[in-house]
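During the no-cost extension, the postdoctoral fellow (Dr. R.K.) reprocessed legacy sequence entries with the updated structure-token encoder. One reprocessed record is reproduced below for audit purposes.
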Amino acid sequence: MSGRVAGDGRGIYDLCMIQGRVLAKSLGLVLLLTAASHVAGQISYELNDEGFQKVDQPDPTSPTGRLQAARTALAEGEAKRATKLLNEWIGQNPYSPLMAEALLLRGDSWVARKEYYKSLFDYEKLLRQYPGSPQFKLALEREFEIAELFGSGVRRKLWGMRWITATGEAEELYIRIQERAPGSKLAERAGIALGDFYYDRGDMWLATEMYTIFSENYPRSQWSAHAMQRQIEANWALFKGPNFDATGLFEAERHLMKFKQEHPAEAERAGADEQLARIDEQLANKQLNVARWYERVNKMVSARYMYRRVVTDHPRSSAAIEAANRLRELGETVEIPDAPAPKPTPAADDPPAPEKTFTHSDADDKIPQDSEQLPESVTQPQEETR
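Re-encoded structure tokens follow.
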């Protein structure tokens, strides 16, 4: 999964590890094939009716032999010479059945030279024109590793310097991998990496969407608990304060209850009960804020109703004590009731709760302070005749 490049040594170490993994995967197969070819050139035989016969090696001037020469150059660390040989080979053999392998090798030669963006042109051409080739999966894996690099902060080169951000390319690569290999392990890794990519950048709205998609597509994934925890945190972060829409809090509470049901051990370690108490306190403060607003605009019946709601719905909160004290000042006799039993966790076979809709305009709706307009999230009780 994509990590964040920190300003300390640990972040640089993680980035170097990703770069090393990209180079190792790109060159590992080349080294293996080259070594196998050399061994085969020494002791390769074929059994036929006349017994074992030595297999002829490809002519070094043939397309197969020239491709082998480029592969050998890449395996020996001569990436620049390999790129040159492959450029000539691809230009002279545009319809060769070995084209997919040649494109993969040239992409690997660009990676060996740390020209990650240039390598994507060859990998993309392979993926689009040769989807049935054995190199298809390898090209997807290469693109995933490059997406990790770009998402971790590696920049694109321009005029010999790395100063163009490539986070957009990382996002697009993660999405394309999931589209091209749906249901695969690689697509699963790309899905959770994309969610973490949004989360690390602070784009909590897209993070919640991606974690929701991931949980639906891979309910038994090894990263299921991680995705649910991040989904809770991202939804919680969408709540901007008691003057704003509380959809994020409701979603965080719902996912916390689900998290406790499906991953009880992880939920206990994460302090799910304490988090639920904090959410309850924030919801109580929001209702208390609404009650105060009603009182400011001299709608006392509605104000009393909302104060009672705070006491009834959130008896464990400090806002309930404030609401009860204010009701006593208004002449009502009120006591904070005993805390209700925890909400039952829905069974696994119960139908899911309906999704709440959320728009960015809702998140920017402040409760009015000096007008008669009511908050959209509050249902006003019928005004009594005083």
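Residues 111 and 243 are 51 Å apart (CA to CA). Residues 238-363 form one domain. The remaining legacy entries will be reprocessed before the final report is submitted.
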